[in-house]
Amino acid sequence: MFENYEQEEPKENKLAIFIPISVLLLPLIFFGAFQFLPGMRNDPPQTNHTIQTDETQLRRVDELCTSLPKPEKFEFIARTESASFNSSTVTYAYRSTRGAEEIMPAFLLWFNENGWNSIPNTSTFEKANQTIYISIANFENTFSEYYIYCTEKK
Predict the structure, then answer these.
(1) How far apart are CA 100 and CA 108, in angstroms?
(2) How many CB atoms lie within 10 A of CB 21?
């Protein structure tokens, strides 16, 4: 008796369930899909001013980083850049067989001659809305890597 219940059910019962559900879901699907089509929403137009500003600022920060002295035996490794809503940063990585005691005096002289303020007990220098931080990683007394982070706040 129950084994054939599914087969014996009349088509009208299936349609009686399917039609009301379809009538309820169809408008939701139809009108919901239109909100993703361009021009169908009432959102304000978006402008792309921040990208242009970030590119200009990144270029300025890059020029700052490249204006720093390059001591002898400073081998370029990599360059990265990043921008956020409040700052832009360009990072240069260098490798050298010369230690920090030989390299840092060239940087310190440049910072002093160009009006940069040193933050005590750090390798961070500030001037207006710009910051330069120098990080040094030593590898088994064979070479050092220097990471120079140049940042400008908006």
Answers:
(1) 11
(2) 9
The Cα–Cα gap between 35 and 56 comes to 35
71/105 Cα distance (integer angstroms) = 10
Residue closest to 116 by CA, chosen among 100, 128, 106 = 128
Q: Which residues contact 107 (CB under 8 A, 6 or more apart)?
A: 68, 69, 134
Domain residue ranges of the chain, discontinuous segments joined by + = 5-34, 49-153
102: exposed, middle or buried (C-beta count within 10 Å: 0-12, 13-18, 19+)? Answer: middle
| Structure confidence at residue 25 as a pLDDT band (50, 70, 90) | low
- In 3D space, the residue among 97, 111, 103 whose CA is nearest the CA of residue 143 turns out to be 97
* 49-153 CATH: 3.30.310
pLDDT at 3 over 80: no
Above pLDDT 90, what percent of the chain?
A: 51
Distance from first CA to last CA of the chain, Å, rounded?
78
Report the relative pairing of strands 117-118 and 75-83 from DSSP bridges: unpaired
